[in-house]
Specification:
- 16% of the residues lie in helices and 24% in strands.
- With 450 residues, the protein is α+β, with helices and mostly antiparallel strands.
- The chain folds into 2 domains: 116 residues, Immunoglobulin-like (Sandwich); 231 residues, no CATH class.
- The strands form 4 sheets. The protein has an 8-stranded antiparallel beta sheet. The protein has a 5-stranded mixed beta sheet with strand order 1-17-15-12-13, with no helix packed on it. Strands 14-19-18-16 form a 4-stranded mixed beta sheet, with no helix packed on it.
- The longest helix has 19 residues.
- It binds copper (II) ion.
- The site of copper (II) ion has 5 residues, from loops.
């Protein structure tokens, strides 16, 4: 890194802290005051989770749940966090701006008509090994080949040989289950219920209602994933199981998922698959099954008015891509699978998944601060805002200069709490160094062109 090598003349930087979402304004100047002085904060953590108690309070018998309405209602009841559980997923006193990327950042906050709400939390507070690098052996078949070869495990996977062996055994068990259900009719015959929604790069979830709430077993995933066999992404409901047989367009198996209510597995990140790669997630403020057959993130009243099923908090969930015909280069536990329609290059999915708020000016560039990295392209034009979203579980800063040569007078976000944004605009071309004052191995260089 050559921080000063290409700088032209003296700095001329306009630093702008942004905080334009009224309900979620995180800081007027220099970051989140409460992050440095949490005792001063009285803001409750953000959640709209209802006060439910535990799975047994459900009013729906899973053995009788045969329609998607029944299954959705049961899943929502069974998986809704109680207030304490929901709060545990967010740092105290959190105020946030829209931002994040599902599948790539710990937090995702979205803007709807009620303001900015949390919609996704992924992975443990301590960070996760996402293994979404095509150059690493992150897919099911690659992990299996690695285990069988006995070759050294790349350090980035942070796994011992024993963990890898155990994980591959679990995935083999799961893959055998998937193989036995390649025909969608076999899933229908065994009582799986289609949610009738096909999510791009993911597929449609078919739930086994009788297995909801019985704990983790790689031989019994609660969810099978199918997608249209013709490769189309349907715009609307896809069909359903009727009397144990599929009625709809031909479907192909694409993967498996798990959903385990916190009442069964606890509010903390589940310890289930061996090793650190399993990145479980929780949905918040999710509206499923509306008349358009799409997931949306509208408030409960709007969701129910549109005929959808609203979940205040829905988790824990994880995908496991164990179908060899859809081996996932983004990783066996990734949110997305680029081999499922619309088929794309694995590395382009992130760009389509980034969440931006109304406070993002047209043409603004976004960098997600995730897993202790400044991610994304840090290339902007003169005058083009560069937004930093902190979607990690801990505060960071965006500070000009380097740890050895800080230039706080040029720009400094101050403490940037999880969910907060910071924007900077550069007035002159050149390369500009920045770093995190809290984690001095976090450094990056912004390239500014005319
Ligand atoms: Cu940091």
């Amino acid at each position: 890194m050559t921080p000063a090598g290409h700088q032209r003349g003296r700095f001329a930087i306009a630093a702008v802290t942004t905080c334009l979402v009224v309900a979620a304004c995180s800081s007027g100047n220099g970051g989140l005051e409460s992050a440095g002085n949490t005792t001063g904060s009285t803001t409750p953590p953000p959640t709209t989770a209802p006060a439910t108690t535990a799975v047994p309070t459900t009013t729906i018998d899973p053995t009788e749940a045969r329609t998607i309405e029944q299954v959705n209602a049961y899943v929502a009841e069974a998986a809704a966090f109680d207030q304490v559980g929901a709060d545990a997923q967010f740092p105290a006193g959190l105020k946030f701006s829209a931002g994040g990327a599902p599948g790539y950042s710990r937090y995702v906050f979205r803007e709807n008509s009620s303001g900015v709400v949390p919609t996704l939390v992924e992975g443990p507070l301590t960070g996760t090994v996402r293994c979404q690098d095509e150059a690493l052996p992150c897919s099911y078949l690659e992990l299996k080949a690695l285990a069988e070869s006995g070759a050294p495990i790349p350090a980035a996977l942070e796994m011992t040989p024993d963990e890898l062996t155990e994980l591959v055994g679990q995935l083999d068990t799961l893959s055998a289950f998937a193989e036995a259900h390649r025909d969608v009719n076999s899933a229908c015959a065994e009582g799986f219920v289609s949610d009738q929604i096909q999510t791009p790069n993911m597929g449609s979830h078919f739930y086994q209602p009788q297995w909801l709430g019985d704990g983790f077993d790689p031989a019994r995933p609660e969810i099978l994933l199918y997608a249209r066999a013709d490769g189309q992404v349907p715009d609307g409901p896809i069909g359903q199981c009727v009397d144990g047989a599929w009625q709809g367009e031909p479907m192909q198996l694409v993967g498996t998922s798990f959903i385990i209510p916190p009442a069964v597995i606890g509010n903390q990140h589940p310890e289930t698959f061996a090793g650190p790669l399993d990145n479980w997630h929780i949905h918040y403020n999710l509206c499923r099954g509306n008349s358009q057959g799409r997931d949306t993130f509208v408030p409960r009243s709007e969701c129910e008015a549109a005929g959808g099923n609203f979940s205040a908090a829905l988790g824990w969930m994880i995908h496991a891509w164990v179908d060899p015909q859809h081996d996932n280069q983004l990783g066996v536990f990734s949110m997305w699978n680029s081999t499922i329609a619309p088929v794309s290059d694995a590395n382009t999915i992130l760009e389509t998944r980034e969440v931006r708020g109304s406070d993002f000016p047209a043409g603004a560039q976004q960098s997600l601060i995730s897993d202790f990295l400044y991610n994304g392209k840090l290339d902007v034009a003169v005058g083009q805002p560069l937004f930093f979203n902190n979607v990690d579980a801990v505060p960071h800063t965006v500070t000009a200069g380097t740890p050895r040569d800080p230039k706080l007078g040029d720009f400094d976000s101050g403490l940037l709490a999880p969910g907060s944004n910071f924007a900077v605009t550069f007035d002159e071309p050149g390369t500009y160094s920045l770093f995190c004052a809290l984690h001095t191995d976090m450094v990056a260089t912004v390239t500014v062109t005319e």
